[in-house]
Amino acid sequence: MPQSHPFFLPKRARRACLQSRFSCAVVLFLSLSAQALAAQARAAQSARPLPDAPQAQAQDAVTIRGAPRDILHDQEAIWTSPLRLRPHDLKWLAPFALATGAAIATDHRAMSQVVSHDASFNNANVNASNALIGGFIAAPVALFSYGHFKQSDHAREAGILGGEALLDGVVVEQGMKLIFWRERPAVDSARGRFFQSSVGVDSSFPSSHSVLAWATASAIAGEYPSRWTQIAVYSVATGVSLTRVLGQQHFPADVLVGSAAGWLIGHYVVHRRHRHHSATR
Fold first, then answer.
1. Do 89 and 28 contact (CB within 8 A), yes or no?
2. Residue 249, Cβ neighbours under 10 Å: how many?
3. Sequence-distant (≥ 6) Cβ neighbours of residue 272 within 8 angstroms
4. Does residue 252 have a cis bond before it (omega within 30 degrees)?
């Protein structure tokens, strides 16, 4: 057997080799899921749905009563999305895979040498991220309440779909955490190893704050697609992701993948079931 085989490498080198393979597997899985989910959202917008994509439900009324059923349908579509990949998705899959791979490869250096370890600075960023995500959690409730009292069907729909995107994001990010079991930056000198069962439910990959912020932001931007609305919600979502890294809570790859997953979830939910946003362009 060649001496370059991982079996003959020193323990540290062998662990690095295996971790690089895990990283590749992570990139591939996430890239497939993200691009297939985006393809489903595009298919849902077309007038003639393709046979392998779920049919759009834009004509159905958006109600709180129907939300649990819709969320179950979303989860089925999200977790089976890699089965609906098509060759033209490589146009987006390749750049995303490269960006994710580069982030994973440089995570250790970023968190150990670039991001400050000053406790007061880290705590300030953690507090900022918590405050910002609180706003995103409250936004769907505020929109629905406004729509209810002002008799605005559009605001009511935006609130319901924003809430659905938020709940879809919770299920997806928790599922991914239990799959990838990545260590937090504070563990083992920020090596960020994957598939460490000892991390339990406190897995670092992906960033929960990033998934939820970008899911809600994407849903709101889809319902209210004006330039200023999009600038506002995506700027705040970017702030959430950035402060999770500056707070030493997550690696850059965690927030990159979390942000992409959240955006795709929000985009998918709105473009599958909206009734109002096209008329407001």
1. no
2. 21
3. 41, 44, 54, 56, 57, 58, 74
4. no
The reply to whether CATH 3.30.70 applies to domain 22-46+57-280 is: no
ω into 206 cis (within 30 of 0): yes
Task: Answer whether 65's CB lies under 8 Å from 112's CB.
Answer: no
Going from N- to C-terminal start, the domains of the chain cover 22-46+57-280
Per-residue pLDDT, averaged over 228-253, amounts to 97
- Output the CA–CA distances (angstroms, integers) from residue 21 to 25, 46, 55, 103, 104, in the order listed: 6, 38, 37, 15, 11
CB hemisphere CA count around 116 (13 angstroms): 12
Given a cut of 50, whether residue 63 has pLDDT beyond it is yes
Cα(39)–Cα(144) distance, integer angstroms: 29
**Residue 66 burial (10 A CB sphere; 0-12, 13-18, 19+):** middle
Packing angle, helices 67-79 and 153-180, rounded to 10: 40
Q: How many residues does the chain have?
A: 281
End-to-end CA distance of the chain: 64
pTM exceeding the 0.85 threshold for the entire prediction: no
- What would the two tokens of residue 83 be? 């089965």
Q: Please answer whether residues 129 and 244 qualify as being in contact, where contact means their C-beta atoms are separated by less than 8 angstroms.
A: yes
